[in-house]
C-alpha cells in the first residue's frame, strides 16, 4: 500500500516539475534577436567642417551573418539650430552604445531624443536600405552645393544631393519604370578627324584617315544592381531623362516630404524647401541659435530586425555617421 502511494506521489511530483519547467522556459524568457551593427564609416564629417566637399556620409552596411528576421539598415537623423544641443544628445546616445546594452542606444535616440528615419524624396519603402543579403557601401548627401545643381562627373556626392549604393547612383529615367542605378563613365575613343564640313582629313599619303583621341563622358546603366529593369550594363542614358533620388525629411507639407534645402538655395519656390519649425518631430529647437543662417543635422545608422514573437523591432548598436551643417547660400 505504501509502495503504491509512494509511486503516485513521485509521479505527481515529476509531473509538477515538468509543467513548471515548461512554463518557465516558454513564458518566462523573451526571445532575443541579435542584430549585427554597421561597423565602418568611410566619411564621417562634423558640423564644424567648413569644407562643403566633405558634407556627405558614407558607410558599410552589415547584412551577411544576420538572422532571417533582418529587414535592413535605417539611418536616423535630427536637426538642431544649436550645436551644443547636438553634441550633448549625441554623447548621451553614444554613452550607452556598448555590447552589454544591446539596443539601448537605438532606443534612446528613437524614444528619448525622437530621431526620425531618413526618407527618400518621391519614394516610399520599408527601410532606408532594405536587406538583400549583401554588405554594401552606402553614400548619401542631403543638399546640393549652391551653384553645382548641374554638376556631372566623378565624386558626385561631393557636389550633388544623391543616394549611392556601391558606387551606383540611384534614380529614375523617363520612359523606364522602377528604380534604376547609374554610373557616370569617362573613357577615350579614337575618332576620324574631319574638316568644318564633316569631310575626312587624310594623312600625307592621301589614303589613311587622320585620327585623334577624344574623351567621352556619358551616363550609363550600371549592372542592374538591385533594380527591376532589364537594361544591360553599359547601355547609355540621356542625362536630360534622369531624375536622381535624394534624401528627405520625415515631415511633410501638403502631402509632400520636405527637403533639407532649408533656405531654398535652388530657388524652386516650393513649400517643401523651408526652414524647420518649432514643433517639427525631427527638429530640436533652441531659442538661442548658434547662428541665424545655419542648421546642423546629425546621423546614425542602425541595423533593424523584426521580432515576430514580441511584434516589435529589434535594433543593433548604432554607428555614428557624423553631422553636417546646412548653411544659407552654401
Explain what the structure shows.
About 5% of the residues have low confidence. The strands form 4 sheets. Strands 1, 2, 7, 8, 9, 10, 11, 12 and 13 form a 9-stranded antiparallel sheet that branches. Strands 3, 4, 6, 17, 18 and 19 form a 6-stranded mixed sheet that branches. The chain has a two-stranded antiparallel ribbon with strand order 5-14. It is of the alpha+beta class and 330 residues long. A hairpin with a 2-residue loop joins strand 15 and strand 16. It contains 3 helices and 19 strands. The longest helix is centred in the first third of the chain and has 26 residues.
Radius of gyration: 28 Å
> How many H/I helices?
3
Supply the helix-strand structural class.
Answer: alpha+beta
The span between the termini is: 95 Å
Low-confidence stretches: 17-26, 225-230
* Overall mean confidence score, pLDDT: 88
What's the SSE pattern?
Answer: HEEEHHEEEEEEEEEEEEEEEE
Percent range for β-strand residues: 25-35%
Biggest β-sheet, characterized?
9 strands, antiparallel
What fraction, in percent, of the residue positions are helical?
Answer: 10-25%
**Got a strand count?**
19
Structural shape: globular
Amino acid at each position: 500500500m505504501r509502495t503504491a502511494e509512494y509511486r503516485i506521489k513521485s509521479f505527481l511530483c515529476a509531473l509538477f516539475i515538468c509543467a513548471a519547467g515548461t512554463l518557465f522556459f516558454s513564458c518566462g524568457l523573451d526571445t532575443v534577436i541579435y542584430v549585427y551593427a554597421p561597423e565602418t564609416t568611410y566619411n564621417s564629417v562634423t558640423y564644424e567642417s567648413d569644407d562643403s566637399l566633405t558634407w556627405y556620409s558614407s558607410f558599410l552596411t552589415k547584412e551577411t551573418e544576420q538572422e532571417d528576421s533582418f529587414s535592413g539598415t535605417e539611418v536616423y537623423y535630427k536637426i538642431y539650430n544649436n550645436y551644443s544641443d547636438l553634441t550633448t544628445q549625441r554623447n548621451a546616445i553614444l554613452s550607452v552604445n556598448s555590447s552589454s546594452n544591446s539596443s539601448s542606444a537605438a532606443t534612446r535616440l528613437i524614444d528619448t531624443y525622437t530621431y526620425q528615419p531618413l526618407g527618400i524624396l518621391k519614394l516610399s519603402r520599408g527601410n532606408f536600405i532594405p536587406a538583400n543579403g549583401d554588405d554594401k557601401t552606402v553614400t548619401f548627401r542631403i543638399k546640393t552645393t549652391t551653384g553645382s545643381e548641374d554638376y556631372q562627373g566623378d565624386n558626385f556626392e561631393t557636389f550633388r544631393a544623391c543616394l549611392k549604393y556601391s558606387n551606383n547612383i540611384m534614380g529614375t529615367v523617363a520612359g523606364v519604370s522602377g528604380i534604376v542605378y547609374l554610373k557616370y563613365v569617362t573613357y577615350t575613343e579614337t575618332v576620324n578627324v574631319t574638316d568644318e564640313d564633316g569631310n575626312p582629313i587624310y594623312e600625307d599619303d592621301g589614303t589613311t584617315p587622320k585620327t585623334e583621341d577624344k574623351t567621352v563622358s556619358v551616363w550609363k546603366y550600371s549592372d542592374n544592381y538591385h533594380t527591376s529593369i532589364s537594361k544591360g550594363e553599359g547601355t547609355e542614358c540621356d542625362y536630360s531623362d534622369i531624375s536622381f533620388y535624394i534624401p528627405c525629411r520625415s515631415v511633410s507639407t501638403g502631402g509632400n516630404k520636405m527637403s533639407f534645402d532649408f533656405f531654398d538655395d535652388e530657388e524652386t519656390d516650393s513649400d517643401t524647401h523651408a526652414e524647420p519649425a518649432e514643433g517639427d518631430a525631427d527638429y530640436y529647437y533652441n531659442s538661442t541659435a548658434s547662428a541665424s543662417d545655419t542648421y546642423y543635422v546629425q546621423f546614425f545608422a542602425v541595423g533593424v530586425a523584426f521580432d515576430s514573437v514580441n511584434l516589435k523591432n529589434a535594433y543593433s548598436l548604432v554607428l555614428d555617421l557624423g553631422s553636417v551643417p546646412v548653411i544659407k547660400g552654401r
